[in-house]
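Data deposition worksheet. Section B asks for the primary sequence of the deposited chain exactly as it was used as input, without tags or linkers unless they were present during the calculation. Section C holds the resulting structure in C-alpha cell form. Section D is free text for depositor observations; keep each observation to a single sentence. Incomplete worksheets are returned to the depositor.
Section A, Depositor: J.P.
Section B:
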Amino acid sequence: MEYILHILILIGIYIILTMSLNLLAGYTGILSIAHAAFYGLGAYVAALMALQVHTPFLVNLVLAIVAATVLGAFIGIPTLRIKDDYFVIATFAFQVITFSVLNNWVSFTGGPMGLPGIPQPNILGLSITEHYQFLILVVVLCAVTFFICVRVVKSPFGRVLKAIREDEILAQSLGKNVSLFKVKVFMLSAGLASISGVLYATFITYIDPTSFTVMESIFIISIVIIGGTGNLWGSVLGAVVLVSLPELLRFVGLPSSIAANIRQILYGVMLVIFMIWRPQGFIGEFSFRK
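Section C:
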C-alpha cells in the first residue's frame, strides 16, 4: 500500500510540473528545456529555509514560488526576445548553468552530497508524516494549480497566449505586447513548477542536483507532448502514463541498472513515435510539428 501511495504522490508532483510547462509549451507554443531548473530551485529554497532558518512549510512554499517567479522574469526578459531553436538553446544553457551551480556550490547547496534530513511539512500544527496525509496535500495543490491554469487559459490573457501560439506576427499587429505576455506566462510557469520542487523535497526529505538535470527537463517535456499539448487534462493523462508505466519494469525481474536504461529508451521511443504520428499527443490541441 505504501508503494502505491508513493507512486500516486509522484504522479501528483509531475501533474503540477507538466501543467505548468503546458501553459508555456502547449498554450503559448514556447518550448523550454529549463523547467527542471525551476523545479530544482523550488526544492532547494524550501530545503535550505527549513534546514537553516527553520521556517514553516507554508512560508517556504511561498518563498519558493516568489524566488522561481523572479528568476523566471530574470531569465525570460532577455531570452524570450529570441525565437524558436535559439530560445531552446538559451533555456538549455540556463538548465546546465543551474545544475552546475547546485553541483559546485558545496558550502551552500551541499554539492553532489545534497541536502539530507529535510523536515516534512507541518501545516498549522498538523505534522504530515504519513504517505496518505502527503497524498492529500499533493491532491489539494494539484487542484489549486489546475484551477489557476484553467482560469488563465479561459481568460482574455489565455486567448492572447493562444493567438501568440498560432500567429505571433498577427498578435503583434492587433496591438498586443507579445514580449510582455511571453514574460508573464514564463514567470507563471516557473512559479507553478517550484511548487512541485517543494513537494518533492519535503516528501523525499533528501535532494541532490542529479534530480534536476537536463534529462529531467526532457522527461517533463515528454509528458507534456505525449499527454497532449494545449490541453490540461493531457498533462494529467501524460503524468499518469509516463510515471506509472516504468514501474511495471520492476515486476519483470530486470536488474535496476538495466531497468533504468530501458526506461530512458522507452521514453525516447515514445517521444519519437508521437512526434512523427501524433505530435499533439493523446488529447492535445497543438502540434509542435506546425
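Section D:
The radius of gyration is 18 Å.
Residues 178-204 form the longest helix (27 residues).
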